[in-house]
Amino acid sequence: MTILVAGATGNAGRQVVGELLALGQQVRAVTRNAALARLPEQVEVVEGDLTRPETIPFDGVTGVHLLSNAGADYAELLSGPELVRRAEKAGVRRITVLWSGYRSPMEEAVTASSLEWTVLRPMDFMSNALVWAESVREKGEVREPFAGARSALVHEGDIGAVAAAVLVRGGHGGRTYTLTGPEALTVPQQVAAISAATGQEIRYVEQSEDEARAEMLAAGRPVEIVDVLLGWKRDMPAEGYTVVPTVEDVLGRPARSFAGWAEEHAGDFRQRSR
């Protein structure tokens, strides 16, 4: 069967594609720029934009992996209802939706549909730590606020594996799955794991909230997104730091650790010789 993966070049999307291929599925990957996709040659790569539902080719597809936001800026995807309507009309059977951190029109449309739907709610991607890579390479430090805040980070590979298992094997319809790793970690603990993986000393520098806000705004992030991200870290809801066994329940193996993730990505953080 053919499964369509939207956001196929993102941190989680690439993992969904890889896991589906490993399960012997045909994959149609949707991206805004096919020339830059760099996906395995057996993948059918097509250009499409979730904000323009008519560009998403649902024909001949039995399963779909969708996002609930419109891009890297976490903007709300208002076209969700039309995307779901088109998927239903095309005969799609199963659908997974990757949660963006808030209830969205996409999630509302999917859960009200006739499709066999599953919403995946990862609390925090381990791959988000890659935003520190340049600072670690150049300065040997990580600057972040809220040193004591813990997060039950999940490996993006586990997100992909759960999505693929749900789409291929079925039996998860009508469920919302919170996805976490095996432990809740603070930023200093994450930095320590990266330091151990690289074999190099990395300093953690605690920012004030105002310093973090100014830095994020200077990087071009919209103010409303900055407010959401800082609010989440400042007042972390219990689900953000509570470890749950969903990954192991679905996959039959333990969720992957941040220490393991850090070893996989040690090359991204290696400091440049001076």
Protein architecture, described:
The protein has 274 residues and is α/β, with parallel strands linked by helices. The chain has 2 domains: 2-121, NAD(P)-binding Rossmann-like Domain (Rossmann fold), CATH 3.40.50.720; 123-154 and 180-242 and 254-274, NAD(P)-binding Rossmann-like Domain (Rossmann fold, 3-Layer(aba) Sandwich). Strands 3-2-1-4-5-6-9 form a 7-stranded parallel sheet, with helices on both faces. Strands 7-11 form a two-stranded parallel ribbon. α2 (80-90) links the parallel β4 (63-67) and β5. 39% of the residues lie in helices and 18% in strands. It contains 12 helices and 11 strands. It has helices spanning 11-22, 80-90, 105-111, 133-139, 156-169, 187-198, 209-218, 223-234, 238-241, 246-251, 258-264, 266-269, and strands spanning 2-6, 26-31, 44-47, 63-67, 94-98, 116-122, 141-144, 150-151, 175-179, 185-186, 203-206. Residues 2-208 form the NmrA-like domain. InterPro entries: Ergot_Alk_Oxidoreductase, NAD(P)-bd_dom_sf, NmrA-like.
